[in-house]
Amino acid sequence: MYVIDPPKQSSLAVQGTSDRFPVRRVFCVGRNYEAHVLEMGNDMRDPPFFFTKPADATLDTPCTVPYPPLTEDFHFEAELVIAIGKGGANIAEADVMDHIWGASVGIDFTRRDLQAQAKKMGRPWDWSKAFDNSAPIAPILPIADVASVETGRIWLAVNGEMKQEADLAQMIWSVREHTATLSRAVTLAPGDIIMTGTPAGVGAVVPGDVLTGGVDGIAEFEVTVGPRA
């Protein structure tokens, strides 16, 4: 018997069906495209690192995301999303694809001013990354139907104006590499989500803006920024 009602299982839509993909954890790869590393003033030689979002930060698209509290600098970051279907630790790069259930695309929303404060003070990024509704994700495409998670255009537009456009091949650390690296630090489990980093062109949005984007051949999203929460 639980002493309170257990939380609802977070989940994401699966393309073409009424099925749902249960979300266990959300891992995010930081600084994984060269041009974005440079625009943020960081060093490309750094190894991949990760931060997390709670499972219930995810939501289906299309959707409306309220402008979050505590920020005046609310940024978008379009990212390829990987859904883990088979768990494991110390996964070899050659075996990574056997652990992936599907792929999609989403937005790693960021309260950039809070992130800057955290960096300056040497504090964790949680308040800037792990807030409510910070990970809208398009319906997941089963991996058998995905042509590639290593090449393909990734893009994001705000009110029809292109802001981010790159190719997955420009990742510093490929899906195989960063998933294998992550599995050496934690044991991956079915339901884990990996957001794989964003290309250059990140920027701020305000209430009323409409964000569209996708990864060609995998998925597309539409997200409207709502009034302040």
Automatic annotation (TrEMBL):
Question: Which keywords does the record carry?
Answer: Hydrolase, Metal-binding
Write down the top EC class of this protein. hydrolase
Q: Which domain of life is it from?
A: Bacteria
EC number from the UniProt entry: 3.7.1.20
MF terms (GO), sorted A to Z: fumarylpyruvate hydrolase activity
Task: Report if keyword Hydrolase is assigned.
Answer: yes
Q: Name one Pfam family in it.
A: FAA_hydrolase
What range(s) does the Fumarylacetoacetase-like C-terminal domain occupy? Answer: 26-225
Name the InterPro entries on file. Answer: Fumarylacetoacetase-like_C, Fumarylacetoacetase_C_sf
Q: Transcription: present as a keyword of the record?
A: no
Q: Which PANTHER family match?
A: ACYLPYRUVASE (PTHR11820), FLUTATHIONE S-TRANSFERASE (PTHR11820:SF90)
Q: Write down what this protein is called.
A: Fumarylpyruvate hydrolase
